[in-house]
Amino acid sequence: MPERLTEMLMDTWTPLIILWITVLPSIYMAPMNQSQVLPSGSSTGLKRLNEEQRVLHRSKRGWVWNQMFVLEEFSGPEPILVGRLHTDLDPGSSKIKYILSGDGAGTIFVINDKTGDIHAMKRLDREEKAEYTLTAQAVDRDTNQPLEPPSEFIIKVQDINDNPPEFVEGPYHATVPEMSVVGTFVTKVTATDADDPVYGNSAKLVYSILEGQPYFSIEPHTAIIKTALPNMDREAKEEYFVVIQAKDMGGHMGGLSGTTTVTITLTDVNDNPPKFAQSLYHFSVMEDVALGEPIGRVKANDLDIGENAKSSYDIIEGDGMDIFEITTDAQTQDGVIRVRKPLDFETKKSYTLKVEAANIHIDPRFLSGGPFKDTATVKIVVEDADEPPVFSSPTYLLEVHENAALNSVLGQVTAHDPDVSSSPIRFSIDRHTDLERQFNINAEDGKITLATPLDRETSTWHNITIVATETRNHSQVSRVPVAIKVLDVNDNAPEFASEHEAFLCENGKPGQVIQIVSAVDKDDPKNGHYFLYSLLPEMVNNPNFTIKKNE
Fold this sequence. Notes:
Layout: H1 2-29, E1 35-39, H2 43-56, E2 68-71, E3 80-87, E4 96-102, E5 109-111, E6 117-120, E7 131-140, E8 151-158, E9 172-177, E10 185-188, E11 206-211, E12 216-218, E13 224-227, E14 239-247, E15 257-267, E16 275-276, E17 280-286, E18 294-301, E19 311-318, E20 324-328, E21 334-339, E22 350-359, E23 373-383, E24 390-391, E25 396-401, E26 409-412, E27 415-416, E28 425-429, E29 439-441, E30 447-450, E31 461-470, E32 477-487, E33 495-496, E34 519-520
Parallel strand pairs: 2-8, 9-15, 17-23, 25-32
Antiparallel strand pairs: 1-3, 3-6, 4-7, 5-6, 7-8, 10-13, 11-14, 12-13, 14-15, 16-18, 18-21, 19-22, 20-21, 22-23, 24-27, 26-30, 28-31, 29-30, 31-32, 33-34
C-alpha cells in the first residue's frame, strides 16, 4: 500500500514539477501588477520567488491572479498550503488584512488574514467538485476600507488516479449466429472512469478478455467484441460466459481496473438435416377405419431449432400412394399418416410406403453439407374387421302383375358376409316400410313373395326395405331398398265419362250429329285405350239412329 501511494503521488507531482519549470519563468518575466498568487511549495522556493518578484515588479497597481492547484484526496497532520495572496501595498507592517470569499471560503479554504496564506482544511474529491471560484480582497485592518478592488481567482482540484473503471450498463447479453467466420461482430461494451480524462492517463482505458478465449477477442481501445474461433457449433455449446476487464493508466502497471461479464448466446442456423429416428416403421390398421383418421406417426429429428427445424413430409414411393397421405403436425413436427380411401382386408392385406422428410427453410451457405432431407420405409398391415353383410346390388327393382297369385315369388335379394369367417345371413322386411304387410320374405334365401292381393289402380309402386343380419353377430346389419312396380292387367270395364241426355228437333235432318259420347278406363294398357261403341241390342234395328266412331 505505501508503494502504491508513492506511485500515485509520483504520477501526480511529476507533471506539476514540469509545469512549474516550464510556466513559472514566463509568468515572472511577464509584466505583473502589484499583487501575485504564490503556488504552494517549500519555504526555499517561496523565498526565491519573493526575491524574483521584488526584481520584476512594476509599479502599476492592481491584482493579477493565476490558477491555484490543490491535490485531491491529500490528507496529512496539518492543513495543506494551497498558495499565498500578496499585494505590494503591504509593507509588512500588518496594516493590511486579507479577506477570502466564494466557494468553500471559511469552511474548505481558510486564509491567514495577515500573511495571505490559503490552506485547504478538508480532503477534496475532484470527482465531486473539480474547481472552486473565490474572491480575494485586501482591506485596511483598522478601517476595513478596501485598498484595491476585489479580484476573482480559481482553485482547481488536481486529479489523482483514485477511481477504477466501471461498466455502468453491465452485465451484458449478446447473440451471434453459430458457424460465423472469425472477426464477426458480437457486441460493444463501454466502461467509464470518473478521473480527469484530460490530465494524465488516469482515465485512459484499455480493454482485455480475462475469460472467454479462444472463442472471442476484444479490440483494446474500442471494446468491440468479435468471434475469434471459426465454426462454433450451437448444437455442441450454445452459451459462453466472457469476462471483460477495463484498466486505466493505458493498461500500465499500477492502473486500476474493473470487470464486467458478457453472456454470448449462439443463435441457430440451418446447418443440420432432418433424420428419422428409425429407418423402418410398422403400423396396423383396421379395415373399417374412417377416412381421414390418423393411423400412425413418424418423426424426423432435427438438431436445429425454430424455423430451421421445420420439415415437410411426403410419400414418394409405394403401393399405397393413392390410399394414404402424410401431413405435418405443426406442434410436434411429426409426420401424420392418414387414410385417403377405404381399405379392404379381403382385397389387400398390407402396404409398403417410402416417406421423405425435408427441411422447409434451406440456408444456401450450408448446401454443401446436404441433402437436407431423409427417408424411411413404412409398412402398414390391414387387419380384418367384422363387417356387415353386403348385398349383391345397392338397390333392387321388381315387377309384378296386379293379378299375381298370393304367395307367388316376386323376386329375390342376395347378400354375403365379406369377412373370412363368412357368417350365414338372415333376411327380413322392415315392417315400417310395409305397414299393410303385403309382402313376405324367406329368411334363408331372400325370396320375396306376395302376401295380399295387389291393385294397380290403387297403388302402382311399393317401396320396402330388406334387412340382412349376420346370424353370428346380430349387430352386423345391412339394409337395401327394394322398389316393386305393379303391372296393369285389363280388369276394369270402360265407363262413360258422364251421363248424357240428347235433344233433337222434329225437323232434324238425316246425318245430323245429335250427341258425342266418351268413355274412360281405369286400366292402363301399354298402347293406350281403344274403345268400340255400339247401340244396345234393342236399338240395333232402329232405323232412326246410328252410332259410329269419331275419327
